[in-house]
Design goal:
The chain is an alpha+beta fold. Helix content is about 30%, strand content about 25%. The protein folds into two domains: about 70 residues, Beta Barrel (OB fold (Dihydrolipoamide Acetyltransferase, E2P)), CATH 2.40.50.140; about 300 residues, BirA Bifunctional Protein, domain 2, CATH 3.30.930.10. Helix 3 crosses helix 5, helix 3 packs across helix 12 and helix 10 packs antiparallel against helix 11. The longest helix is centred in the N-terminal third of the chain and has 23 residues.
Length: about 425
């Protein structure tokens, strides 16, 4: 496309990027907003070039523009590298539940910001743990023994007529490494055949698993709270631009810096009963009950000392007031994001681990390798895990996990894109 004569070439600028919007002007010119290199420019296209270019939103262009006193820069040269067809999705007011067009929605400011939030969130998590002497490890995705977390497993035929599972959590492998490395963390994809689609559930998640030797439930609670507050401070101080890009406020981060109250499982039942949500002892919270309880707090909060039947086989147990309790914790958001972090002490005695497997009805042979980690010298240790996607939603301050995930996999949904 030919250039037009400009009054001056002084200070000319080259812009390459996507046309975000096109607006008509009374004089026949057009004003375009162009995005490229994580920056935006508002430029005016002379009528002659505008007619020839036939600009459409999301077209890829290369421009040369010059500044004008008292006005927006004027484009002197315009080259359309790829003219976009009419879009099948609304990028101005997107429907983020529409996974069919997710590959186009990722061009919106909201999801572009989400990609950047996730980048920095991982960066600050790793810096925090690295600074405490943890080592980042890679753990398997395929496993024989399910870790028995929430949701069913995805199973498929493996070699020699065996069945393999997609891992639900990296915790067993990170746990095994404690005897050799002492302080480890893994950030892996995990897969859970969830039954319900809610604002906090996905089928494919990224999960952060942290395990450390010589630690107790109390130690990991302190670590969980310190980590979450560290993340809040980093984003509050360094990333107001991301909140602006996503059209979000960062005011919620101040709540994450408050003290985190601790209540026991028994105390949580008392609170729920007072709210009109009767929950029998030994039952898990429904989402409605969890949200009702969370609304009574002004900051994230811990629930501790769960009964043995509510936890899994890797937690030790102890007797208290005629009940079998566990040195465990869940850190809940006060904002309706559900459980953000779950952790506690781990069984390090082979006999107790074997008894726990029987208690929960698991096949001892399936977990024989894990029992061996206890038989041959296992230190007392503890750990925690957090769903990275749910953590991102909390830090961003969005009300749905879809707004913090780039290519979500949903319960009962299609795999698209």
């Amino acid at each position: 496309m030919k250039a037009i004569e400009c009054a001056t070439k002084a200070g000319e600028m080259v812009w390459k990027g996507w046309v975000e919007s096109v607006e008509d002007q009374p004089n026949g010119n057009k004003v375009v907003r162009i995005r490229g290199n994580n920056a935006e420019a508002i430029l005016e296209v002379p009528r002659e070039l505008a007619v020839e270019a036939q600009l459409t939103p999301q077209s890829v262009v290369e421009t040369i523009s010059v500044p004008r006193p008292g006005g927006i820069p004027l484009i002197c040269d315009l080259n359309v590298l790829n003219r976009a067809e009419p879009l099948p999705a609304d990028l101005i007011d997107p429907d983020f539940t529409d996974t069919r067009h997710r590959h186009l929605h990722i061009r919106t400011p909201q999801l572009r910001a989400a990609a950047m939030f996730r980048h920095f969130l991982q960066k600050y998590v790793r810096e925090f743990l690295d600074g405490l002497g943890f080592y980042h490890v890679h753990t398997p995705i395929l496993t024989e023994a399910s870790c028995v977390c929430s949701g069913d497993v995805f199973a498929f035929p493996y070699y020699n007529k065996k069945i393999a599972n997609l891992i639900q959590s990296p915790w067993m492998y990170a746990d095994a490494l404690v005897a050799g490395v002492e302080r480890v963390y893994a950030l892996n994809p995990s897969f859970r055949r969830e039954r319900e689609a809610t604002n906090i559930h996905l089928v494919e998640i990224w999960q952060l698993q942290v395990d450390l030797a010589w630690a107790s439930n109390e130690d990991v609670m302190m670590l969980e709270e310190t980590l979450l507050k560290h993340l809040a401070r980093e984003f509050l101080e360094k990333h107001q631009d991301l909140y602006s890009l996503a059209g979000l406020s960062s005011t919620h981060l101040a709540d994450l810096l408050k003290p985190y109250e601790r209540i026991t499982y028994d105390e949580s039942l008392d609170r729920l009963n007072a709210l009109g949500h009767e929950l029998p002892y030994g039952s898990d919270y429904s989402k409605e009950q969890s949200d009702a309880l969370s609304a009574t707090f002004a900051a994230p909060y811990f629930i501790t000392n769960y009964p043995q039947e509510l936890k899994n086989f890797w937690f030790p147990s102890y007797e208290a007031s005629g009940k079998r309790l566990t040195p465990s914790n869940d850190l809940f958001a006060h904002t309706g994001h559900g459980e953000i972090i779950g952790g506690g002490a781990r069984v390090h005695n082979a006999q107790e681990l074997s008894e726990n497997l029987d208690y929960f009805g698991h096949d001892q042979e399936e977990f024989d390798w894990f029992l061996e980690t206890r038989r041959y010298g296992c230190p007392p240790h503890a750990g925690f895990s957090t769903g990275f996607d749910r953590l991102a939603a909390l830090i961003m301050g969005v009300d749905h996990i879809l707004k913090a995930t780039l290519f979500p996999r949903l319960p009962n949904g299609t795999i698209r894109p």
